[in-house]
Amino acid sequence: MSNFFKKAVGLFVEFEPENDKPNFNNDDHLPKQSRSAVHNVSAPISLGLSQADMDKFSKHFEDLFDKANLPGPDYYEFWKMMETLEVAVPDEKVRMAAVYATLKVQGLSKHTLLSSAAQYQKILQTDKQEFQNAVNTKVLNEVQGRKNLIDNLEKINNSNAERIKQLTEEITANQTKITALKKEIIDEENKINSNQSGYHVACDAMISLIASDVEKINNNL
């Protein structure tokens, strides 16, 4: 899955040198080959996915497909065999015909290949929506609560302005908390946005690559 996934993401992302990559954390649960003409892609996005990001998203999509895998050969087996034979059979058309011929003996038909590819696209779309819902919840839980706390602390500081002499220590302590909370908000939002952007690019790349394979299957098989 990892080579297939990296190839898919490579259509949209410029991979930075390993030493220059930032480490985007996620509390919960990503050789370039030009296909820009097929996918209508302009310049790749410089996102800077780390190897940890690549491994994390690759494992996520692999688990997702494993759970949804249908009995008998389908697009998932086709795709994995295509990846396995890439080094031995670099010509994609030749490799595609060979893989299809092998799986056809096991019961794969072109109809099953295309319909299962469409099913995996739907699975990715559903997973994308679930991911976005999780992001929205995380923003609400991790960011909005801190913003509300800042608002409350600032109200306390305003109400105590007339008693500044007696409340100097409390105001100072609250201001320290505000500074720390603001930093936490920036860090949390950067982490969430980075992970969200990485996932969207990766998922869209996977969806587009499947669409490309569907077109190639229709044209070549």
Explain this structure to me?
There is one protein chain. Mean pLDDT is 79; it is low at 18-44. Helix 1 (2-10) packs across helix 7, helix 4 packs across helix 5 (92-105) and helix 6 (110-159) runs antiparallel to helix 7. The protein is mostly helical and 221 residues long. It is built from 7 helices and no strands. It has one domain (2-220).
Describe this protein with a few key phrases.
71% helix; mainly alpha; 221 residues; 7 helices; rod-shaped; 0% strand
What would a concise description of this structure say?
With 221 residues, this protein is mostly helical. It is built from seven helices and no strands.
Mean pLDDT: 79
State the helix count: 7
Helix content: over 70%
Q: Tell me how many strands there are.
A: 0
Question: Distance between termini?
Answer: 23 Å
- Main sheet, how many strands, which sense, barrel? none
Structural class per helix/strand content? mainly alpha
> Approximately how much beta-strand content do the residues carry?
under 5%
Order of helices and strands: HHHHHHH
Radius of gyration from the CA trace?
A: 24 Å
The gross shape turns out to be rod-shaped
What is the count of distinct domains? Answer: 1
Model regions low in confidence, pLDDT < 50 over at least 5 residues: 18-44
Task: Describe the SSE topology.
Elements lengths: L1 H9 L25 H4 L11 H18 L6 H10 L7 H14 L4 H50 L8 H53 L1
